[in-house]
User: Fold these one by one.
Assistant:
Number 1:
Amino acid sequence: AQSVTQLDSQVPVFEEAPVELRCNYSSSVSVYLFWYVQYPNQGLQLLLKYLSGSTLVKGINGFEAEFNKSQTSFHLRKPSVHISDTAEYFCAVSSSGGYQKVTFGTGTKLQVIP
Amino acid sequence: KAGVTQTPRYLIKTRGQQVTLSCSPISGHRSVSWYQQTPGQGLQFLFEYFSETQRNKGNFPGRFSGRQFSNSRSEMNVSTLELGDSALYLCASSLVEPTNEKLFFGSGTQLSVL
């Protein structure tokens, strides 16, 4: 079975400051990892994904994430946030080796303070 | 190219009633997944369909069911509604395999059970 933990339910940060949103996963097999963003009253949009290869993954809107297998983490980072980054962010995991469902975390609300 | 379309956008029902939600995936996408989103619980996987067959199912009671038509459109049904079924129901489509592909989400159907 696979699972995702997002320990921070809310993260307030000042505009132009850096931010890190934490994600830890659990799986007994190789994983695929994703970050999605949800703006108010909208569905989710893919920010970035890790399937294999380089552990540093760059996504849209200046976000990046690093896959750390030893720490089973996939933290999302942005060096300088904007007001428009205010949204809820979801980490998700699926497993390789045949079809598996995509499991989402409980989400982290990023609040950018002007 | 049209995105994922979910109807209706809002729905109000009373306990004991049943409800049917509809999802039209992006043209050419054959996989449709359904998720239940509630505050603090994140997205809970309901089921996934591919070519009219349910490939995977989450841990929801039998009151939750779904189906997919030959044109890839999908419906989910909830019978004997309970107050706890109040949630945002999201549909997501992908080309073939949601495990390692980008999921495209609709804006969801907000269900309120009174």
Number 2:
Amino acid sequence: ELKVEQNPLFLSMQEGKNYTIYCNYSTTSDRLYWYRQDPGKSLESLFVLLSNGAVKQEGRLMASLDTKARLSTLHITAAVHDLSATYFCAVNFGNEKLTFGTGTRLTIIP
Amino acid sequence: DAGVTQSPTHLIKTRGQQVTLRCSPKSGHDTVSWYQQALGQGPQFIFQYYEEEERQRGNFPDRFSGHQFPNYSSELNVNALLLGDSALYLCASSLRQLEAFFGQGTRLTVV
């Protein structure tokens, strides 16, 4: 079965702190995507990771992909309130569709 | 570039009715996928259209059907609506299997 699991499901962190969201998937893939979703809104593309060892950074967010471990991480540095949202990873298992993780609801506390 | 546009943005229907949702892909994109996102969950793949054909389908009943037009726009039809069909319906467009861009979604409420 093609599965994508994220943890934690809920994350409450203080401004200025660092944290990592983990995304594990069940079988081989070298195409992984991270999205952000604000309440009631659509999905905003954050990162596209297309090869083993890929690392991408945008502002306080950095994403990486380890295809051998079937693991991607989304690292948040010095969190600010504007980063509060739900974050999804999604995997293309080569079957022309995206399989999404459960999402991580991130709340940044002042 | 207007990006992916969906209509309507919100819709309320009664159980048993039928609904049609519409999607215009991003300029230059030829592939349209539809996803259902229930409250508090991740999006679930419904189906994908390419060259006016359904190329891939998720685990959704035949009540869910779609169409792609020559201009690459797409429709999602749901017949015999159930309360459980209440969700955010997202359309994503891409150029073949490259990065997917999502529309703002249609919030369907079935009462």
